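--- STAGE predict ---
source: upstream dedup step, 1 unique chain passed
mode: sequence only
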Amino acid sequence: MSEGFATTDRAIEQGLAPSLATARDFWLLMKPNVMKLVVFSGITGVVLAPAVTHPVLLVVAVLCIATGSGAAAAINNWYDVDIDRRMARTRLRPTAAGRIEPAEALGFGVTLAIFSVMVMGLALNWVAGALLAGTIAFYVGIYTLWLKRRTPHNIVIGGAAGALPPVVGWAAMTGEVGLLPVLVFAIIFLWTPPHFWALAIYRTKDYAGVGVPMLPVVAGAAVTRRQIVAYTAVLVATSLAPFALGLAGWLYGVAAAGLGGWYAWHAVQLWRDPRESRAMRAFKVSIVYLFGILTALMVDYGVQGWWW
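--- STAGE serialize ---
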């Protein structure tokens, strides 16, 4: 009996013990909180697409977008395990906490990525499959491996990956890319920096401690707050483009103007108020704002379809 215990102890010391990860750990590895927004924006592209698709294929498209998002997150957990262990916000992630080995996370992520792209291509079309593959590759290769630890512009450029799901959803239904999903892409792309910079102001010490050059770390909170106001102004103007170009109706136009004014007010308040609590409030408001904009687009589309 004692010999058996000794063997087990040696296995643990050598890293050969079986994984203690649960199904919930692998779910958390996929960053479900981030996935919610990715899936919702992907659904927006699916709903807005001018095509009639079998409901089963619609569900398959959304599941592929969700799986692709989870794949990118898992690979991100693999690469960032060293800094995740040292940051208060991320130290409980399955890889950082040691419940999932980094190699397991990498294998899991690569498998999900291949599966999601193949199913999207075979079940829907290869335009959507290629866009999904590009989204995963951009998040992993451009943002995670290249930009995140090298430049304060990491989230500005890397935000393109998080803005692509509406384009993927539209392409899954139509086999092509249209102007409306490109405008939705632009809205999310411009939304990402002020959204994430507000969180970075709140977590500046975390990022500084691990050497990630987020804008508040490199340029200071005051400069970051000014950038948030500038990006928000451009974002609000861009959000009105679908209405101005006749791609959305009055319902969306009024909602975009109202939500944009509300979000801009919070951005200005953050510019005036340097407290970290104000930054966290702006971060939370930004999430509600984007969900509101996307919902308004879908509701507007549904109301127009019912009217005509």
